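Input.
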Amino acid sequence: MDHPTPNARPGHGLALLLLLIGSAGFAALWVLLALYSNRPLGWMAVLAAVDAALMLRLGGMRRGWGRALLATVATMAIVALANWGIAGGQIGAPMGLLPWESLQKLGLSYAWTLVQLANGAVEWAWIAASLLLAAWLGR
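Output.
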Protein backbone atom coordinates (compact mmCIF):
# COMPACT_ATOMS: atom_id res chain seq x y z
CA MET A 1 0.00 0.00 0.00
CA ASP A 2 1.40 3.39 -0.98
CA HIS A 3 1.64 6.00 1.72
CA PRO A 4 2.01 9.67 0.89
CA THR A 5 5.39 11.09 1.64
CA PRO A 6 5.59 13.83 4.26
CA ASN A 7 6.77 16.28 1.61
CA ALA A 8 3.83 15.64 -0.74
CA ARG A 9 2.07 18.76 -1.91
CA PRO A 10 -1.64 19.11 -1.12
CA GLY A 11 -4.11 18.50 -3.94
CA HIS A 12 -6.06 21.07 -5.88
CA GLY A 13 -8.88 20.82 -3.35
CA LEU A 14 -7.04 22.85 -0.73
CA ALA A 15 -5.99 25.44 -3.29
CA LEU A 16 -9.57 25.84 -4.53
CA LEU A 17 -10.91 26.06 -0.98
CA LEU A 18 -8.38 28.75 -0.06
CA LEU A 19 -9.16 30.57 -3.29
CA LEU A 20 -12.90 30.51 -2.60
CA ILE A 21 -12.54 31.71 1.00
CA GLY A 22 -9.91 34.29 0.10
CA SER A 23 -11.93 35.65 -2.82
CA ALA A 24 -15.12 36.00 -0.80
CA GLY A 25 -13.28 37.64 2.06
CA PHE A 26 -11.41 40.04 -0.19
CA ALA A 27 -14.58 41.03 -2.07
CA ALA A 28 -16.31 41.71 1.28
CA LEU A 29 -13.37 43.84 2.45
CA TRP A 30 -13.40 45.80 -0.80
CA VAL A 31 -17.14 46.45 -0.48
CA LEU A 32 -16.80 47.63 3.11
CA LEU A 33 -13.91 49.99 2.32
CA ALA A 34 -15.65 51.37 -0.77
CA LEU A 35 -18.92 51.99 1.07
CA TYR A 36 -17.05 53.62 3.95
CA SER A 37 -15.01 55.90 1.68
CA ASN A 38 -17.85 56.45 -0.84
CA ARG A 39 -15.44 55.69 -3.71
CA PRO A 40 -15.14 52.63 -5.99
CA LEU A 41 -11.46 52.03 -5.05
CA GLY A 42 -10.49 50.45 -8.37
CA TRP A 43 -6.89 50.00 -7.21
CA MET A 44 -8.14 47.22 -4.91
CA ALA A 45 -8.40 45.04 -8.03
CA VAL A 46 -4.59 44.81 -8.12
CA LEU A 47 -4.56 43.60 -4.52
CA ALA A 48 -7.29 41.11 -5.43
CA ALA A 49 -5.00 39.68 -8.12
CA VAL A 50 -2.19 39.28 -5.61
CA ASP A 51 -4.61 37.65 -3.16
CA ALA A 52 -5.88 35.16 -5.76
CA ALA A 53 -2.40 34.14 -6.88
CA LEU A 54 -1.22 33.85 -3.28
CA MET A 55 -4.14 31.64 -2.25
CA LEU A 56 -3.43 29.25 -5.11
CA ARG A 57 0.24 29.15 -4.28
CA LEU A 58 -0.39 28.60 -0.57
CA GLY A 59 -2.81 25.83 -1.46
CA GLY A 60 -0.04 23.99 -3.25
CA MET A 61 -1.29 24.28 -6.81
CA ARG A 62 1.49 23.67 -9.30
CA ARG A 63 2.84 26.46 -11.45
CA GLY A 64 1.60 26.71 -14.99
CA TRP A 65 -1.10 28.09 -17.22
CA GLY A 66 -3.84 26.37 -15.25
CA ARG A 67 -2.91 28.28 -12.11
CA ALA A 68 -2.57 31.50 -14.11
CA LEU A 69 -6.01 31.01 -15.65
CA LEU A 70 -7.57 30.22 -12.28
CA ALA A 71 -5.98 33.30 -10.68
CA THR A 72 -7.29 35.48 -13.52
CA VAL A 73 -10.81 34.05 -13.32
CA ALA A 74 -10.81 34.47 -9.53
CA THR A 75 -9.68 38.09 -9.92
CA MET A 76 -12.53 38.73 -12.37
CA ALA A 77 -14.95 37.15 -9.90
CA ILE A 78 -13.66 39.30 -7.04
CA VAL A 79 -14.00 42.43 -9.17
CA ALA A 80 -17.54 41.47 -10.20
CA LEU A 81 -18.62 40.58 -6.65
CA ALA A 82 -17.11 43.73 -5.19
CA ASN A 83 -18.68 46.01 -7.79
CA TRP A 84 -22.04 44.31 -7.37
CA GLY A 85 -21.78 44.69 -3.60
CA ILE A 86 -20.78 48.34 -3.86
CA ALA A 87 -23.68 49.07 -6.22
CA GLY A 88 -26.08 47.23 -3.93
CA GLY A 89 -24.82 49.04 -0.86
CA GLN A 90 -25.02 52.44 -2.51
CA ILE A 91 -28.53 51.94 -3.84
CA GLY A 92 -29.91 50.14 -0.78
CA ALA A 93 -28.68 52.51 1.93
CA PRO A 94 -31.12 55.35 1.13
CA MET A 95 -33.97 52.81 1.23
CA GLY A 96 -32.93 51.51 4.62
CA LEU A 97 -31.74 48.17 3.25
CA LEU A 98 -28.61 46.39 4.40
CA PRO A 99 -26.14 45.65 1.58
CA TRP A 100 -26.98 41.92 1.44
CA GLU A 101 -30.70 42.74 1.37
CA SER A 102 -30.34 45.12 -1.54
CA LEU A 103 -28.18 42.62 -3.46
CA GLN A 104 -31.14 40.27 -3.64
CA LYS A 105 -33.30 42.97 -5.19
CA LEU A 106 -30.67 44.40 -7.55
CA GLY A 107 -31.04 43.01 -11.06
CA LEU A 108 -28.07 42.23 -13.28
CA SER A 109 -28.72 44.93 -15.89
CA TYR A 110 -29.33 47.61 -13.25
CA ALA A 111 -26.18 46.56 -11.39
CA TRP A 112 -24.19 46.72 -14.65
CA THR A 113 -25.52 50.23 -15.34
CA LEU A 114 -24.52 51.36 -11.85
CA VAL A 115 -21.05 49.83 -12.20
CA GLN A 116 -20.54 51.63 -15.51
CA LEU A 117 -21.62 54.93 -13.97
CA ALA A 118 -19.48 54.52 -10.85
CA ASN A 119 -16.25 53.39 -12.53
CA GLY A 120 -14.28 55.83 -14.63
CA ALA A 121 -11.34 55.25 -16.93
CA VAL A 122 -8.91 55.00 -14.01
CA GLU A 123 -10.88 52.21 -12.32
CA TRP A 124 -11.19 50.28 -15.59
CA ALA A 125 -7.41 50.65 -16.08
CA TRP A 126 -6.81 49.23 -12.59
CA ILE A 127 -9.10 46.31 -13.37
CA ALA A 128 -7.33 45.59 -16.67
CA ALA A 129 -3.95 45.78 -14.94
CA SER A 130 -5.17 43.41 -12.23
CA LEU A 131 -6.12 40.76 -14.79
CA LEU A 132 -2.69 40.92 -16.38
CA LEU A 133 -1.03 40.81 -12.96
CA ALA A 134 -3.12 37.79 -11.91
CA ALA A 135 -2.06 35.90 -15.02
CA TRP A 136 1.58 36.81 -14.49
CA LEU A 137 1.65 36.01 -10.75
CA GLY A 138 -0.38 32.85 -11.22
CA ARG A 139 1.89 31.21 -13.75
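The two ends are 34 Å apart (CA to CA).
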